[in-house]
Amino acid sequence: MHKYEKIEKIGEGTYGTVFKAKNQETLDIVALKRVRLDDDDEGVPSSALREICLLKELKHKNIVRLHDVLHSERKITLVFEYCDQDLKKYFDTCGGEIDQLVVKSFMYQLLKGLSYCHSHNILHRDLKPQNLLINKNGELKLADFGLARAFGIPVRCYSAEVVTLWYRPPDVLFGAKLYSTSIDTWSAGCIFAELSNAGVPLFPGNDVDDQLKRIFKLLGTPTEHTWPGITKLPDYKPFPLYPANPLWYHVVPKLSAEGRDLLRKLVVVIPNHRMLADEALRHEYFYGFTPP
Ligand code: AMP
Fold it and tell me: Is 148 in the pocket of ligand 1 (CB under 6 A)?
């Protein structure tokens, strides 16, 4: 631990406190994430350590680099590449305006990072604007990749803030336990709409019921006929049969027709009909786009 000198506390995340720190040997600035483990008596589970060590191998410019893992018997500290701010804070300061080219660039980078991790069989499972980090030069990087698998997604954050449901797909809200890459592409779609609307979330539900209702009011309520197996999901319950709302122009008025088409292919209720991240990168919305 002496290798890193803490400079200041940056925030409270899902898993614990995050500090800005300096590597005393290289003078590099890093982010230290001290993970608080639920079950302190048991020490650091070896399964979590194994998972975390795999994440050190993820090397991509759109993934926050995990430089080091430090652990004692009771706690684990992850040493990450430092980024200037997160997308949630960016929304707070953008004054309700984001250039549609910036939207495209952030979305492209988000899908690039996602596609890289998915090709390594690693899911995020909890993508949201708070864990999309951005740098002054417009680079976007995904943070907390793989942590949900290592540590589980807690119901409350370290700071007692309730974990947001806004980016969760309907299958997960109905209690599906078999996760696939489609969990992340749903979240990416929600974030796409939020980017295009300069920080106005697509489905800001208050609880699981309200979350599902908001989703079905836009996309239509699925049935056993349209989504075979839905009624067998652990927490399934019937909802009023809302028809799909075709007026996407009103949902994301600033997004181009190509952008709206991509969004509609990401936020698809039936999980295996959702577009994959690498397919999304080839969508015509990105034609002619030069990545940063
Ligand atoms: P998280 O646990 O990722 O939700 O982190 C909580 C907050 O700490 C985030 O909202 C970020 O603002 C900040 N943070 C997390 N990771 C980093 C990082 N690598 N560099 C800079 N800030 C970070």
Answer: no
Q: How far is the CA of 32 from the centre of ligand 1 (A)?
A: 9
**Nearest alpha-carbon partner for 48 in 67, 33, 30, 35:** 35
- Token representation of residue 152: 């589980």
Q: How far is the CA of 86 from the centre of ligand 1 (A)?
A: 7
Instruction: Say if residues 25 and 10 touch (Cβ distance below 8 Å).
Output: no
Is the per-residue pLDDT at 160 higher than 80?
A: no
DSSP annotation of 156 reads: B
Give CA–CA dist 127/184, Å, rounded. Answer: 7
Q: How far is 26 from 98, CA to CA, in rounded Å?
A: 36
- Angle 47-53-59 (CA atoms, 0-180°, nearest 5)? 140
pTM of this structure: 0.94
**DSSP percent split of the chain into helix, strand, coil, nearest 5:** 35, 15, 45
The 10s digit of each residue's pLDDT in 60-76 is 999 999 999 998 777 88
pLDDT, tens digit (0-9, with 9 covering 90-100), for 174-214: 999 888 999 999 999 999 999 999 999 999 999 999 999 99
Which position has the higher pLDDT, 135 or 1? 135
DSSP assignment, residue 22? E
DSSP 105: H
Q: How many angstroms separate the CA atoms of 81 and 66, rounded?
A: 7
Residue nearest atom 1 in ligand 1 by C-alpha distance = 13
